[in-house]
Amino acid sequence: MPIELTVPAVFNSIGDHSYAVLLGAMLLAGVGVPLPGELTLGFTGYLVYTGQVDLMPAIAATTAGDLLGAVFSYGVGYFARTRVVAQYLYFFLPAEAKLAKLTCWLNRYGIAALMIGRLLPVIRGGIPLTAGFVRMNARLYLTGSLISSAVWCSAIISLSLGLGHNWQQLSGLATNAGLAAAGLIIIIFAGGYMLRRL
């Protein structure tokens, strides 16, 4: 069964557990299971459109699932560096001096890069693992991930809600929405940087 049909089939069989399944589906997408988060969010918008779920609880459930998946992937990257990669694949690691510089840079500026990357469909899945690997500051990571997850889930669900029965046309719009949101974040951070320089 094509995945475009699998997601609706699953949701049609869950009855009163819609929000738990939404959370679980986004969590699985966040940890790398081949279940596109955009597809789950798109169908969520359709469920809101048809009155099967409410908008705000749906956004809260999908945001929580996306955030939990991102936290899990961050943890995998964080611990894999010391327990697996360092022992068996140490030749893939950058030099300690270079890694220290990268970690310092990411801890200082990384929240902008994190938020932008997590709003781009093509690369958003790889951001948490990378952030964990370079030991990005956990508080910054959680803050950036929470904001980007909330923006991403809200935007895609709202777009799908607007499409109604045509929610499957969402794929191209999701990419454009991600690019627009990422561009807005760049403008905000650039403006803040310029104001501090004045």
UniProtKB/TrEMBL annotation:
Q: What is the lineage of its organism?
A: Bacteria, Bacillati, Bacillota, Negativicutes, Selenomonadales
Give all residue intervals belonging to the VTT domain: 35-158
Give the matching InterPro entries.
DedA_domain (IPR051311), VTT_dom (IPR032816)
From which organism does this entry originate? Answer: Sporomusa termitida
Protein name as annotated: SNARE associated Golgi protein
Task: Give the record's membrane topology.
Answer: Multi-pass membrane protein
Q: Where exactly are the transmembrane stretches of this chain? A: 20-48, 55-79, 140-161, 173-195
Where in or outside the cell?
Answer: Cell membrane
Q: Which domain of life is it from?
A: Bacteria
Give the record's GO CC terms: plasma membrane
**Which family is annotated?**
Belongs to the DedA family.
Q: Which keywords belong to this entry?
A: Cell membrane, Membrane, Transmembrane, Transmembrane helix
